[in-house]
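Thread: "does anyone have the structure for this chain?"

Original post by V.I.:
We have the sequence but no experimental structure in hand. Need at least a predicted one for the grant figures.
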Amino acid sequence: MSFQSLGLSHHLLKVLSGLNYQQAYPIQEKAIPTILKGKDLLGIAPTGSGKTASFALPILQNLQAQAASKNRHVAALVLVPTRELAIQVNEVFNLFTRAFPKKNKTIAVYGGVSINPQMMKLQDVEVLVATPGRLLELVESNAVHLSDVKTLVLDEADKMLNLGFKEEMTKIFSLLPKKRQNLLFSATLSDDLNNINAILLREPEIIKIEAEENTIDLISQLAYFVSEERKGPLLRYLIKRNAMQQVLVFTSSVFKADLVADKLRINGIKASAIHSKKSQGAREEALNKFKSGKLRVLVATDLIGRGIDIKFLPHVINYELPRSPKDYIHRIGRTGRAESPGEAISLIVPEDQHHFKIIQKKMGKWVTMIDSKDFDLHGY
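Reply from O.Q.:
Generated one for you, tokens below.
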């Protein structure tokens, strides 16, 4: 189903088109219209199924019709279990909020870093993505107030409960207004989650998306053991030695995407990074050049990689592994399409080995491993 049929504004449709997001995922098809109507929702869908956009898009659109919140009184609160997910969800909101003439300030707050800069950034924030512990610290410091929250999102609710956030979340719930929209998303439906649903949700729309069966038989997979300092030279070695002409490289961060693309260009390989910090025009230009063959390598983050759909893409390289097996399958699934074989390569540093074993086990397919320590990478 196209995004045009889901009730989204022309501002958001324009941004989605620029990102090459043509067809909505199943969770987005069902969740977006429900959230736009202000209803509560319980969404059960696997990791990597497009859940973040399914709530970010309608929340931002609904905020456009609401009066601005009082300073430090957030209108939408998204609770997540980890710092990494907080950053990722915040990137999605910031990617879409610039679609509107009226910008909705969105930030992420999490522990493990200084609290003072986060306190300062909370001025005029409307959408807050937070881990529970840091959120309570900020509330206790009067840096943010939750009494005017209109929409609460509990993302990866199953993981939050499993990680022992129950006490913290109970405190947070007590600070929220009783009248609000509640949106719960989870990969599984556990007994603990059922108990939370009974307390939080009011006549919710229940959406359950089954995990897709992934066909990866057409994809030839290889992995190379490599030390961190030899990873960049190995990437360039593989591209040049194998005369790869159209290569999609995945990194886990915007910073790394820029760094990898810069190093490729310095070494004579036409490359460009595509990520949420780039302007829409720059993203479109890079993608068009890549599709037409004028650009040899496109370096992408998962967020933008979702919208890259090239019928006969021959090579995908995981410069860094994604955080979940589902994301890994989505990445390598950019190739091996339309009954055309493709190749997926992963560069595995020592600290990645355990995680890569988990990915292979979940995928149900073991990948041929090659040790690159004897490769002569001089000059690459």
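V.I.: this helps a lot. The radius of gyration is 21 Å.
O.Q.: and The mean pLDDT is 87.
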